[in-house]
Amino acid sequence: MENTFRNPYSMRKYIVFFGSLLLCLCLVFQCKRADSKYSEGYIVYNISYLNQRPDKLMGEFLPQTMVVKFKQDKYILMIGGFMGFFSFGNICQDKSNITFIHVLNHKYIHQGDKGEWPAYFTGNSKYNLVFDHSTQRIAGFLCRKAVVKRSGGENFNVFFTDQIKLRKPNETNPYAGIDGVLMDFRIAWGKMDMQLRAKKVVFGPVSETDFTIPKGYQYISKTSLQKVLCLLTE
Questions:
Q1: 0.70 cut: is pTM over it?
Q2: How far apart are CA 76 and CA 70, in angstroms?
């Protein structure tokens, strides 16, 4: 060993080796910091209604936006409308999936297991997806396109991005085949078909208290909560 370090050529080899190792470690930690930067924040979506019936519900009373706060592998989505008389939310974290709804003075909540689909999905079938190379910028993010193929129904396009670092963002919805955050997509909520398109993404710290199960809610079954949602959208 002593002779090795006396040899200038051998010393240069060690210096190059350890220098390269240090550079690789620095790049890895920089990448981890970059991923961390994009793994916490919130997304604001605009909501439009594909089967709105003016004789039943006036457009101005329907929810117009959805906000999703995310932090690594958990998120909470919130929708409010009907002039403040209604709010709806879903928390997906750890080992649970919680759906809650507040209508006038009635508060209901259902706590399902991790991986269970939220109460606002009436089925549990994953979409048949076909990916292509088309892209589109939405809210400043480069998004890829996927086509949802529905037998006996209308096909439609969705867009998603992998630039927002949320782990398994579609684990509990029909878009489970998409490994990315949805930026333009459809969802059936009760008896209404909604189109959601991201208009703003903000990265920054999200408090752990945002994922706290709300108090003062009555626990009910998933089926009962789905019936409440259907009544609201009839």
A1: yes
A2: 7
Listed residue (109, 117, 100, 112) closest to 173, CA to CA: 117
Number of alpha carbons in the 13 Å side-chain half-sphere of residue 111: 11
The helix (H) or strand (E) run that includes residue 230 is helix 222-232
pLDDT on residue 24:
36
Q: Record the tokens describing residue 19, joined without a space.
A: 């220098």
Q: Rounded to an integer, what distance in angstroms lies between the CA atom of residue 110 and that of residue 224?
A: 9
Provide long-range contacts, Cβ within 8 A and 24+ apart, for 225-231.
225/99, 225/101, 225/108, 225/109, 225/110, 225/119, 226/119, 226/120, 226/122, 226/190, 228/101, 228/103, 228/108, 229/88, 229/101, 229/119, 229/120, 229/189, 229/190, 230/190, 230/191
Stretch 115-137: mean pLDDT: 83
Would you state the torsion angle of the CA atoms of residues 151, 155, 159, 160, taken in this order, to the nearest 10 degrees?
0
